[in-house]
Amino acid sequence: MKNLLLLGFVAGALLSVSACSNPDFEKKDQMAAAELPELPAVAVGKDSAAVAAEQAAQEISAVNATTTIKKMQPVM
Q1: Cβ 20 vs Cβ 13: under 8 Å
Q2: Which three-class secondary structure state does DSSP give residue 23?
Q3: For the CA atoms of 62, 73, 46, 65, what is the dihedral angle to 10 degrees?
Q4: Which region is the signal sequence (predicted)?
Q5: Looking at residues 8-24, what average pLDDT do you find?
């Protein structure tokens, strides 16, 4: 029984070692830096500083949190 258990552990270790080796792995020196994509156009309305100031001034409560969460969810 002990020999069979030991054999199972050895087989599991070999499988995990072989599964962890990735032939498609690229080293950091092989990677090329890519340009960042263009930033999207600013949403119509307030700029981000005004929105951040408004959110910072908003009182923290369950009602305000619920309305904020509802605004973030997509409309079905």
Answers
A1: no
A2: coil
A3: 10
A4: 1-21
A5: 72
